[in-house]
Design a protein that fits this description.
Shape: flat
Low-confidence stretches: none
Distance between the termini: 52 Å
Mean pLDDT: 91
Largest sheet: 2 strands, antiparallel
Number of strands: 2
């Protein structure tokens, strides 16, 4: 994909950026470099390569599923402003 200086100015205007001509030319050069890199990445043959979830071979350490805290449901319910059938009642927000 190629961009022109007018494209950069239009994008800058849409983004509400005030760019000088020198800044627009510098951004155009940077964007063209990025597009060249994208083209190089797209030209690599990736057929037969399985997708990876992470760039490194990382596995998560698993731990046993154990309860580590006490059940404080009754305590929290006792200090709540309004409770009914074990549920917290809150004021209606939408009419």
């Amino acid at each position: 994909m190629s961009l022109s200086l007018d494209d950069v100015r239009r994008i800058a205007q849409l983004a509400r950026l005030d760019l000088s001509d020198a800044e627009a030319r510098q951004i155009l050069a940077q964007l063209q470099t990025i597009f060249v890199l994208i083209g190089e990445l797209q030209s690599v043959d990736t057929h037969g390569i399985e997708p990876m979830s992470h760039a490194r071979d990382v596995t998560l350490r698993l731990r046993e599923d154990q309860v580590t805290e006490q059940d404080q449901h009754e305590l929290f319910q006792s200090i709540a402003p309004q409770v009914e059938s074990g549920l917290y009642l809150v004021p209606r927000v939408i009419e």
